[in-house]
Design brief:
With 253 residues, the chain is of the alpha/beta class. The chain has one domain: FMN-linked oxidoreductases (TIM Barrel, Alpha-Beta Barrel). It contains 10 helices and 8 strands. It is globular and about 45 Å long. The mean pLDDT is 93.
Length: 253
């Protein structure tokens, strides 16, 4: 099994370098939109594209990823909303297990269904403990997952959940308030979780400003994922990237 991209993520974490992933929903982009996002992403020196969504009702996943890969060298990671979201054109797949919920289908059920296709895809597979955090409003991910989000004021529960996921073999931990969340994952929760795990920590959902992205990195997030805010204002990519990448520089100085 390939581990090249995961190794790079680990190396960046070990060096104290923070990373920025732009999330693209294939249902919400076209050729022109992708061209614009790639151009802005190259200029901003982002680290990853995450591609996927809670629904993905179009057949645009393959074409979306192919267009990105033809246009730039930035790694493309599938962030799947269901077992059907697999594309051999990507570099890697976040193999998500919803460890914050109690829905057996999202803990292991859909993985059993998808395993043969995932194995044959040739993708680098990154087992990821996925934790949905209450963002102050119902989100698509909370509805589709049919699971109660972690309370945003219960950092200890989040900490123990992340620790359990890591000890069960998850290589990444992903805390997500969900697309369009009113409130992002609290910095106190990020700090609590990051201080008790060694796995790289991904944080997304409700991050609308460079200041918030910066604060999340300072609290211990290793990768910041932004999608909804960029869909509304693509020019934020540069500001977000600069803020996230400045954290390591600040710590060194």
């Amino acid at each position: 099994m390939k581990h090249s991209l995961y190794n790079k993520i680990q190396e960046r974490k070990s060096a104290g370098k923070k990373s920025f992933a732009v999330l693209i929903d294939p249902d919400k982009v076209n050729v022109a939109t992708i061209e614009q996002l790639v151009s802005l992403a190259l200029d901003a020196a982002i680290d990853y594209f995450f591609v996927g969504g809670s629904l993905v009702i179009s057949n645009n996943l393959d074409e979306c990823i192919r267009q990105i890969k033809v246009s730039c060298p930035i790694p493309v990671v599938i962030f799947p909303g269901s077992h059907s979201q697999i594309s051999r054109y990507a570099d890697a797949l976040l193999y998500l297990s919803l460890i914050s919920g109690r829905n057996p289908e999202l803990l292991i059920g859909q993985h059993v269904i998808s395993a043969p296709a995932v194995k044959q895809s040739g993708l680098e597979i990154m087992p990821t403990g996925y934790m949905v955090v209450d963002g102050g409003a119902p989100t698509t991910v909370s509805y589709i997952s049919n699971a109660t989000p972690l309370p945003s004021d219960k950092s200890e529960i989040a900490m123990c959940t992340a620790m359990a996921g890591e000890m069960l073999g998850m290589k990444l931990i992903f805390m997500d308030a969900g697309s369009g969340a009113k409130n992002p994952v609290p910095t106190a929760m990020i700090e609590k979780v990051s201080s008790h795990i060694e796995a790289p920590l991904i944080v997304g959902g409700g991050i609308r400003t460079p200041e918030k992205a910066y604060a999340n990195c300072r609290s211990g997030a290793d990768i910041i994922v932004v999608g909804n805010a960029i869909e509304k204002d693509a020019s934020l990519i540069k500001e977000m990237s600069d803020a996230i990448h400045s954290v390591a520089v600040t710590r060194i100085s």
